[in-house]
Write a structure and sequence with these properties.
Length: 199
């Protein structure tokens, strides 16, 4: 039913919009994460504080805030609702109303969504990310490559509906990485570990 999809979208958006990166850095006395680096609230920017444990916690919680509404929506309203919840959680993370619609770039949220929707596809996403990250030392390139290939694996392993969902998530992720894409094209994208940490 349409009303169930609306419920799933609301659930996904509200869960996805919880700014764990901002909350954790403030709780740790590191100030406003939006004032450093890229200014977004994701784990990559939290890592720029120099606190790896905080960045890891942000990554896990951002993935969980996507996985939770997906699993709840599936249990309550079915598979279509789960996919709607995944898309809405991604939107909530990237465009949280509480932060003026400026959030993170969505990598952890996409991981959490895919693991909850179809864990083999989620694991492949992680494997592709790790492969490119180790080979090229660029987090953004790894994320873009993993996102671009996710719809293919979703189609092969599951079905066209999941492929379409993964494709939409990938489009949103590419949009959030548009500045990174321009730097990659210019050859000026910084490599992992090369950026200065926040004082």
């Amino acid at each position: 039913m349409t009303i169930n999809l609306i419920y799933a979208a609301i659930l996904g958006y509200l869960c996805g919009s919880v700014p764990f990166g901002l909350l954790l850095t403030r709780a740790a006395g590191l100030g406003d994460i939006r004032a450093i680096g890229s200014g977004n609230i994701g784990a990559t920017n939290v890592l720029r504080t120099g606190n790896r444990w905080l960045a890891a916690a942000t990554l896990i919680l951002d993935a969980a805030k996507a996985a939770l509404p997906v699993l709840l929506a599936r249990g309550l309203w079915g598979e279509d609702a789960a996919m709607v919840a995944a898309i809405a959680a991604f939107a909530g993370h990237c465009f949280p109303v509480w932060l003026g619609f400026k959030g993170g770039k969505g990598v952890a949220v996409m991981i959490g969504s895919l693991l909850a929707l179809a864990w083999p596809v989620g694991l492949i996403f992680c494997a592709v990310w790790l492969l490119i990250a180790f080979a090229q030392k660029m987090s953004s390139l790894a994320a873009l490559t993993a996102a671009a290939t996710a719809p293919i694996f979703a189609y092969v392993i599951v079905n066209e509906k999941l492929a379409a969902t993964a494709g939409l998530l990938a489009i949103l992720l590419f949009f959030q990485h548009r500045a990174n894409i321009m730097r990659l094209l210019r050859g000026t994208e910084p490599k992992i570990g090369s950026e200065k940490k926040a004082p």
